[in-house]
């Protein structure tokens, strides 16, 4: 279905959108996929780890630019043309990393779980409020100077870096071959 056709129908009747989708979930799935339309896959000429982190960080950023649909993206990763395009880029990156086909699928699932959980936390992220100060104080005996805000870009980047190190180690160990 063409977005132009949908837009034309909406000009005449705002409820016309429901003629193009079988149910509310299908409509939200389409909107979620459209939110990822601008996410660029750096392509196979980019080293696998940079390509992978670029896709995942850009997908998170794109989802957060649309707060009304971000929670839906976190709950139901898009399977439309844009979601599948990004999944293909992620899969190609993991293959280039040296993982076996089985490990590629398992790692893809793990990365999707990480990104969707991080996205859900970002949607619900707060500020350094009273609760944050209480948690920070409770953790004051642990190493480190500050406690990042749950769902922050800083926390996401750190977790992604850990996952990339794990992928390298898995590939070096034979990648579940």
UniProtKB/TrEMBL annotation:
<dbReference type="InterPro" id="IPR036271">
    <property type="entry name" value="Tet_transcr_reg_TetR-rel_C_sf"/>
</dbReference>
<dbReference type="Pfam" id="PF02909">
    <property type="entry name" value="TetR_C_1"/>
</dbReference>
<dbReference type="GO" id="GO:0045892">
    <property type="term" value="P:negative regulation of DNA-templated transcription"/>
</dbReference>
<protein>
    <submittedName>
        <fullName>Regulatory protein, tetR family</fullName>
    </submittedName>
</protein>
<dbReference type="InterPro" id="IPR009057">
    <property type="entry name" value="Homeodomain-like_sf"/>
</dbReference>
<dbReference type="GO" id="GO:0003677">
    <property type="term" value="F:DNA binding"/>
</dbReference>
<keyword id="KW-0805">Transcription regulation</keyword>
<dbReference type="InterPro" id="IPR004111">
    <property type="entry name" value="Repressor_TetR_C"/>
</dbReference>
<feature type="DNA-binding region" description="H-T-H motif">
    <location>
        <begin position="2"/>
        <end position="21"/>
    </location>
</feature>
<keyword id="KW-0804">Transcription</keyword>
<feature type="domain" description="HTH tetR-type">
    <location>
        <begin position="1"/>
        <end position="39"/>
    </location>
</feature>
<keyword id="KW-0238">DNA-binding</keyword>
<dbReference type="InterPro" id="IPR001647">
    <property type="entry name" value="HTH_TetR"/>
</dbReference>
<dbReference type="Pfam" id="PF00440">
    <property type="entry name" value="TetR_N"/>
</dbReference>
């Amino acid at each position: 279905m063409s977005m132009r056709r949908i837009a034309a129908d909406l000009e005449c009747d705002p409820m016309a959108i429901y003629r193009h989708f079988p149910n509310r979930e299908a409509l939200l799935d389409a909107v979620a996929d459209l939110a990822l339309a601008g996410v660029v896959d750096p392509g196979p000429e980019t080293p696998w780890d940079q390509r992978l982190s670029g896709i995942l960080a850009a997908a998170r950023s794109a989802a957060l630019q649309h707060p009304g649909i971000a929670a839906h993206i976190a709950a139901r990763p898009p399977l439309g043309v844009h979601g599948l395009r990004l999944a293909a880029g992620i899969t190609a990156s993991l293959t280039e990393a040296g993982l076996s086909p089985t490990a590629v699928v398992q790692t893809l699932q793990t990365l999707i779980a990480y990104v969707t959980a991080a996205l859900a936390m970002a949607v619900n992220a707060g500020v350094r409020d009273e609760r944050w100060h209480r948690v920070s104080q409770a953790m004051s005996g642990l190493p480190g100077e500050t406690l990042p805000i749950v769902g922050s870009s800083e926390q996401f980047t750190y977790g992604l870096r850990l996952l990339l190190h794990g992928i390298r180690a898995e590939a070096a160990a034979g990648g579940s071959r």
